[in-house]
## 1
Amino acid sequence: MHTIIKAVKRKYESSELKTPEFYVGFNDVVSNDFNTLFRSLPSDRSDKVFAVPGDFHGRLLPPSSVHFAYSSWALQWLTEVPKAAEGLKSPAWSGEEREEVYDAYLSQFERDMESFLKCRDVEMVEGGIMALLIPGVPALWDPQKESLLFRGLNFSDLPLSTWSKRLSESMSRTFNLPYYFPTTEEPRAILQKSNSFIVERMEILNSGASLNVDGHVACLRAVHQNMLTHMFGAETINETFDLLLKKFQASSIYADPSSDRTVMIVAILKHKHKNI
Ligand SMILES: C[S@@+](CC[C@H](N)C(=O)[O-])C[C@H]1O[C@@H](n2cnc3c(N)ncnc32)[C@H](O)[C@@H]1O
């Protein structure tokens, strides 16, 4: 937010216009610890901050109140595991139903992006700018040589059942995660269909994560610990992540941070004027 505010201020300072006041609303799910977030902000800020707890697939803010919206590494979260992936006999991403499940995940991602855009359409001012950073995967990648930051969790190369002896086979085989990492072209196709936003610019960047094995496991743990605890119980967690660490250490792919092919899809959108 600091970088965005600095850039907007610079633009105003080079014009005749008076620099506006800045109000920054931080959104996350209601269980997020907003107090810790606010305590961690630098005290010498000129902007005012407020929390916006709630699901970003629904309405969060008053109509026409947002000039700049920024979403980073969050739109991969789906509102639910697609129905086609539930109740399968094999892990959704590796069984015979793979194509069907892939399509169901992509459709869910598309529906969720559309509801996100529909709500921001109401909340943003005309001409407002939205920057989206969506983690993604290349259309083609070689699992024998390359790794992805998150795919290992539901991909057959690292099924959950091999992580922990205590996760029963049947539970881990049917455990699918409510997120989807799009390929580089999928968000573009969805965004270009929008009647409310114009795609001003899109870029594909390396994720820049370059995590070593400890960092990779810490990242996976930060993201998944709550979900796994909820599904399988707190007593499985340490063992699960200890085993994952050993598995990554033994893998020449995961031990080499430069083999990560995760990408970041950057989209800059402009909110259309209603009469366009
Ligand atoms: C990987 S973190 C990214 C955090 C931060 N934006 C960043 O770039 O460092 C994803 C965040 O999105 C939040 N999130 C996921 N689904 C959400 C939803 N439907 N509504 C609001 N927040 C959500 C998660 O709680 C989590 O804090």
## 2
Amino acid sequence: MRLATTLTAALIGLPSAAWAQGPDGATLFARCAACHLPDGAGVPGAFPALRAQVGRYAAVPAGRAYLVSVVSHGLTGAVAAAGMVYSGFMPAQTLSDEEVATVLNHVIHDIAAPGSKAAPFTGAEVAALRQGREGASAQDSRALRPDDLAVDP
Ligand code: HEC
């Protein structure tokens, strides 16, 4: 009887605990994969690949601010990545601070730059980088891009 009660509590408790943590990086990345493809390879000329340059952005403060801005506010304006120039438009993604951190960590550490020593994003860091930029635009993200880091050596 006691065991049954404990088991029931565990069964009821599990889904709510998983929900409280929010969706994982792979689940969140599905929305990005619609354009950047599931392996982040992108579509040359249309959607840039999420590759080594993303790991380089994540390694410096200016690049971290850029990554959070791209996901939060979108991106537009000519950008060169992996030898191609893109002049497209990425729409802002409606995600919580925690979700932005989770999806960026997945992109950086699982897809774009495995082995990267860049510190994982936290929801608190994303919140701080978003503070005061609520009305920012996709053009504003372009102005933050560290173009020198985009070029593969
Ligand atoms: C509707 C298509 C679309 C979706 C969805 C999308 N992107 Fe993008 N993304 C783009 C386009 C287009 C660009 C290039 C914009 C330009 O040409 O200025 C881009 C650029 C980027 C860049 C900048 C790359 C660089 O080298 O500067 C990053 C990082 C990025 N996307 C990450 C993401 C992540 C993470 C998600 C999901 C949370 C996502 N994108 C969802 C279309 C998309």
